[in-house]
Amino acid sequence: MPSGAFSRGGAPPYGRRLAAALARLDALIDWERSARVVGARRKMRVSSAPCGDLLARLGSPQAALPVAVHITGSKGKGTVAALTAAALTAAGYRTGVYGSPHVAKVTERVRIDGVPVAEEALAAALEAALDARAAAVADRGRAAAAGGGGAPRPTRRRWWPMAAVAAAAAATAAAEATAAAAATAGTASRAASTRRPTRPGLTS
């Protein structure tokens, strides 16, 4: 298995379908490795536009989530997400949580009622998000050739993997008939990919 942010060489073995999807995701960029390059952060374009574009191409699955909570900040997001999910579950909601990074398996990033999502469900959602990303790249190329605009720029590749995972998480939650969702992000909350799947909703 290729070594990367999602398909790490030391990760537990995944089924063929999920392994292939993770390899496609890692082929886009290695965020952690690129951040070590001098000046890499200064060139970073932080935007939620790629995730918004992917969600639209996926049929806006986030619209099926009646309750959405966006949790941001520098510390304690995972704890707050767990407490929020527990409260929503206790209130009778079927609850999904998206957070990163994972500890052992990538399926931990998307949990439904506290249980990591099944590999097949995550693989299917990632495949759809990655196919949507490929379509966005193609549309952008055609628009550029015609002298127009197009989808959010795919040439800035750092943001697309996070956008793909966030979009896949929203699609998975919707497919699981989830009634409430909580997602975590870093300090750049207004531009985070997780903001798109949780809008409209509560940001804290």
Characterise the protein shown here.
The termini are far apart. This protein has helices at 16-28, 31-34, 49-57, 77-90, 119-145, 159-175, and strands at residues 67-71, 95-98, 110-112, 115-116, 180-184, 202-203. The model is unreliable at 154-159, 187-191 and 199-204 (pLDDT under 50). Strand 3 (110-112) and strand 4 form a beta hairpin. Strands 4-3-2-5-1-6 form a 6-stranded mixed beta sheet, with helices on both faces. 41% of the residues lie in helices and 10% in strands.
Topology (SSEs and partners):
Blueprint: H1 16-28, H2 31-34, H3 49-57, E1 67-71, H4 77-90, E2 95-98, E3 110-112, E4 115-116, H5 119-145, H6 159-175, E5 180-184, E6 202-203
Helix pairs in contact: 1-5, 3-5, 3-6, 5-6
Low-pLDDT runs of 5+ residues are 154-159, 187-191, 199-204
Largest sheet: 6 strands, mixed
- Strand content bin: 5-15%
Number of helical regions = 6
| CATH topology type | UDP-N-acetylmuramoyl-L-alanine:D-glutamate ligase
Give the N-to-C terminal Cα separation: 37 Å
Radius of gyration, in angstroms, nearest whole number: 16 Å
What is the count of distinct domains? Answer: 1
